[in-house]
């Protein structure tokens, strides 16, 4: 059996070993989060509906500014990287900060402003229209495969599949389970509302309908949809290309192929918008596009690739930094002084990286005395010069080694004994 038959057999056997698995796991990933904190809201105004969220972003939800007990609005956008597994229990009237609630899941929060982080997330009383309510819109970066979602929550929650609501429970409510929400695959959005005091719970579990694994390479991400999920990158580019709004309360819909058709408004603040975009790109680079949490092998692969790229850039830069003509001229003059002969270079002079940093000068000729008519003393294919890396930084012309490549030596003995 030849090599190609063996390889074909191994590939066929490996592909036959790919099996579909269905398991319920906590949802994780990298999420762009738009959050709005509003005071003096009623029960209906604290429900998890897109109309309430849009009104909160626009600053039109709740009591008008001109009336008694006006609603106060605070907005922020940030990136969350981790599991959607947030939970804070009793006591109900505890002064629960927003950042304390976000920390309960153990993920990374990037770009959250200190002012918004310190706000009280939820406080009674919805029955009197005086509740403090916080809306969170989690938009997952990258496409997600089809699955079924089970959500434990307090208060309301809504799940969106490519901008279309597919299930949820408006609330307000106590801790409850909303299970069996279908998701066809694509862009995922989850709207969560915390209101009327603690508990504040959001725990999202998903059962993927198809998640192939390689039995013999357990850490191998052999399912092509994982890599197809990187299409979410152009959504990130679209975010960064949007013009930032001058005020935090300004609203602009997201654009770009990945997010076209989404009804979710995106609140932008100049500098924080760019910082959030940078955090998003970094998080995407270090995480698996489907599971969100980058596995150990992928992280090390990306780090190794970064090292290779850095070395390549260094080498290319070194080529441009080597003053090849100057080094070749200095080498020819020095060699001529040692040999007591004139040394000329008539060919191409270029910098080299392999087998060492240096210069290669072609067409080398070492002259004979005038009385010799048989040609040059040495005719070599090239002169190879090794240059230390330190000379690139110092700017000095330093030569570690001079090597003649393919030399032909012609020695003539005169009648008077001269050579």
Q: Can you give keywords for this protein?
A:
10 helices, alpha+beta, 20 strands, 2 domains, 419 residues, 6-stranded antiparallel beta sheet
Mean pLDDT: 75
The biggest beta sheet reads: 7 strands, antiparallel
Number of helices: 10
Strand share of the residues? 25-35%
Domain module count: 2
Low-confidence stretches: 1-22, 210-294
Which strand order spans the largest sheet, edge to edge or round the barrel? 5-3-2-6-11-8-9
| Cα-based radius of gyration, to the nearest Å | 34 Å
One letter per element, helices H and strands E, the order comes to HEEHEEHEHEEEEEEEHHEEHHHEEEEHEE
How helix-rich are the residues, as a percent range? 25-40%
Kindly report how far apart the N and C termini lie. Answer: 66 Å
- The structure class reads alpha+beta
User: Which shape, going by the Cα principal axes?
Assistant: rod-shaped
Number of strands: 20
Describe the structure in your own words.
By secondary structure, the protein is of the alpha+beta class. It folds into 2 domains: 24-293, no CATH class; 295-419, no CATH class. The protein is 26% helix and 30% strand. It contains 10 helices and 20 strands. It has helices spanning 3-16, 50-58, 98-103, 114-117, 224-228, 233-241, 270-285, 296-321, 324-339, 390-394, and strands spanning 24-26, 28-41, 73-83, 85-88, 108-110, 131-140, 147-154, 157-161, 164-169, 176-183, 188-195, 200-208, 251-253, 265-267, 343-345, 349-352, 358-366, 378-386, 401-405, 408-409. The strands form 4 sheets. It has a 7-stranded antiparallel β-sheet with strand order 5-3-2-6-11-8-9. Strands 15, 16, 17, 18, 19 and 20 form a 6-stranded antiparallel β-sheet that branches. Strands 1, 4, 7, 10 and 12 form a 5-stranded antiparallel β-sheet that branches. It is rod-shaped. The relative contact order is 0.12.
